[in-house]
Amino acid sequence: MKRATDENERLSTLFETQDGDKIVVVQITGFLARRIVSYAGVDMEFKKGERYGMIKFGSRVDVYLPEGYEIAVQVGDRITGGDTVIAMNGEHAQRT
What is the domain range of residue 90? Predict the structure, then answer.
C-alpha cells in the first residue's frame, strides 16, 4: 500500500559545514500545503539559524546528520525554525 507522504512534494537540500560535515534536510509537504519555498541555491552560504526556505502551512522536515552528532531535542518537543538547536557536533562541541 502506498503512503500519502510518498506522493507529496519534497525537496532535499545538502548542507556542508565548515568542518566538512554533510547534513541533509528533506522538506515534505502535507495534505493541505503542497508547496515548498526554497531560498537556497548552489554554493550559497548560510549562517547558523538563517532560514533557507519554508513549507506553506507546514508539514514535516527530516534531518539526516552524520555520525557523531548529539541530538538536542526529543520526540514531542516543540521547536522553532532558525531558533531551536536540534543537534550538536559531539567532536567539536559546535551548534548545528
Answer: 4-95
